[in-house]
Amino acid sequence: MRRKGGIECTIGRSVDEFENGFFEGVWAGSFLDFSSALGSETYGSGIYRSKGRTTFIQRKDVREFTFILRDRLNQVEYISNSLCFALSAARIGPDSALMGLLSDNLVDSTFEEGKKGFHAMNPVVAQTTEYTLYRICYSNFWFDDDGLLRFDPPVAVRDFKDWNDYKGYLLATTQAVFSNGGNRQRKLPLVPLSSVSRGYDSPAVTAIANQCGCQEAVTLRVNGDNGRAIARMLGMRPLVFPHVLKQRSKGLTRTIEGYISKLSHEFVATAGIGDDINSISFESVLNGKIFLSGVGGDGNWQKDAKPNLGLKKSIPQSTSLTEFRLRVGFAHYPPILAGSLCTSSLIRIANSDEMSGYSVNQAYDRPIARRFAEEAGIPRSSFGIKKSAQNPFFTNRNEIWREAVTEVMKRYTI
Question: Domain of life of the organism in this record (predicted)?
Fold first, then answer.
């Protein structure tokens, strides 16, 4: 909570504290040098205090957000990576005007603004006579002496020269993230855990993770997309779990009802569409982990992708993990999004002569992903054959959004 004269902080049990701030998650820098988080690839959020200024550090994957709820009447701001926490701290009721506005437009506006890239997003989500809610992502921010929101410049755009340059960067970044998470000075040292299927992106990510020391991978027990064999090819231990949708024969487009209703609350109570609910299949093994996913492959590794500046997001999926992640206690690191502030060089590499041997010249063609996987020893016929979605699409998520948020807010009653 921020008001004139200072900031009052409430942090979770697994948040690491430093002399000059705190952080939840991991970053590609030394854990013993907290200042390194200011200019690093950060996959978490926190605050850093220096020379009278408090900087709010943001995730660099635009899949989770920091929310600022400004109470204009009482001149107080509630700032949190959990929307439900901010609403609870401000004692926003389920029947309030603000809650009504959010249930109508938060999810849709997050998707529409995400198409523009973080640098062009409108941070204002909703405004009533009493409150203004801001949604912030990527850029670190701070408040000036007049209480105005200021943003630090983004990390430098990386222009990768060739395959080896890009491969080296991802391996170095992943190794740095693992070292940061595994530091014994943490409250809870984190161990890497990758997710794997038979698509393109997660086998490549799992190959990267394995080269950096990851020994386990989770996969879903789904016909045609079970990644158990791929994990074993890499010498990793596969952990196989059933899909949360027990009767997948009904398809992935569903109405939230029955046993799914209660399970869905913490995924719906976000700025996303609730599709990350399939992560609940892995809940028993996620605590204390750095969870690696294949998020980002559509825009970054697809051979015919269009250049992307500012991490523009063309699909609404993969922005509903926050409340589940915070409750269970794990960090989420999607390697594909590392160094992807501008994707022009990635598309150039994917279409270069040095990658021609890894192109299958089909609509579903990701030479970068294929090379990571094949160089690690995964046979061509084992993955990347057809795109197979596993995330559900809930048709009534907006109708139950207010109910879901109200339920999750109970966790944060102060």
Answer: Bacteria
